[in-house]
Amino acid sequence: MATTNTFPPAAAARSRVTTIIVAFLVASTAASPLFTLAQGLTGLHPTVLVLTQFSTAVGALAVYAIWRGRLPYPRTTKRGLLAPACAAVGLALAVILVLWLLAVVEPHRWEPLDTATLPAPLALILLAQFLGAAGEEVGWRGLVQPLLETRMPALLAAAVTGVFFGLGHFYVAEAGVAVYAVFVVSTIGLSVAAAAVTAGRAWWIRVLVATVLHWGVNIGTLVGFPHADDSMAWMTDTAIAMGLVGVACVPFLIRSTRRASTASPAPLTAVGA
Q1: What is the per-residue pLDDT across 180-203, written as a single tens digit (0 to 9) for each?
Q2: How far apart are CA 233 and CA 239, in angstroms?
Q3: What are phi and psi of 46, to 5 degrees?
Q4: Are 143 and 63 in contact, with CB atoms under 8 Å apart?
């Protein structure tokens, strides 16, 4: 028997997406202090893993539980995992290269990693950092950015996601409002870069590819700049590096989404059906 899909009016759809994202942010924010408490109780060194990274995963799981099968999601217009994953590795290397070039021309120097100073074996840290990055990306690139793409252009959706992503790192605010603002610039750049290699793909590919990019930047920073801190100097460097890479990705993202928009129309899909 044939079935007919019905979709809510534009205003109702916008309201629904807004409600879902607000619910995600509330659940993630509520989970954050609990993970902070767990970090202190377990004595887990933040170099190994920052448990608050899983706050957004909790927020995403809460949303999936409430709206299971009813989450509006942009259509999948691209296939394959290898190409975007390789592109994500290249973008992460580009960020680290810019950071290295900045370190060469600036008066201060960032000492290379001495593995003897690490609080755990490097292999364990690499695995833990990957899981932490995945915990964040389940929420940001697996949920928030795709939902925003149903209401606005992919580039704007990426920028808004980057703002939320940056502001969600509450601990950076302790270094001052200026440092916090510069940090948000860097997360916008990273978000745009992530959108360039994930837009139009299935949600699980979005999460995995964005995790590779996020993890690559984190590990490159750990290995190449282990003494990086919350100073304005370091935050400015990261904002420049991620901002330049993000800007370089803008033309590709715009072309990619234009090609997708000219393809044969298809309705939004629902995640979890």
Answers
A1: 999 999 999 999 999 999 999 999
A2: 10
A3: -65, -20
A4: yes
